[in-house]
Amino acid sequence: MNMKFSYLSLVLTLLLMSITGLQAQQYFGEKIDDQGITPIKQVIQQLTPDKEIPTKIKGTITGVCQMKGCWMRIKDESDNELFIRFKDYGFFVPKDAAGKTAILRGKAFIHTTSVDELKHYAEDAGKSAEEIAKITEPEQEYRFLADGVIIYD
User: Domains in the chain: how many in total?
Assistant: First the structure.
């Protein structure tokens, strides 16, 4: 009887979620909410090399570290992209999160990434040896240090 009840509860929950448009949420790091989100494009426009902006953003996950889930990339609807790391290396996200929507709270900033670091991230992302060998110049990129993340399934 317990098994039937558990199964029925699961089916009803999924049905209710599909009818109401609710999505399952996973929280990582500090628990945050979905209020006060600043568009990624607006954050990027405000950044300068010597400035950090504390904010909350929302975007689509475009890539995740395939070793541990220790970093990810997100973009907005205009393809503005941020590289995300997690505060104090204190939490990781699922390696299969690409394509899902995320809300993040933390600090945005500009970072110059060395060739060695770029190659390391390319290895983590599962890039081929040929693709990694093509990395020869440092890159200036938009980054985000997150202290809390919500991922929507």
Answer: 1
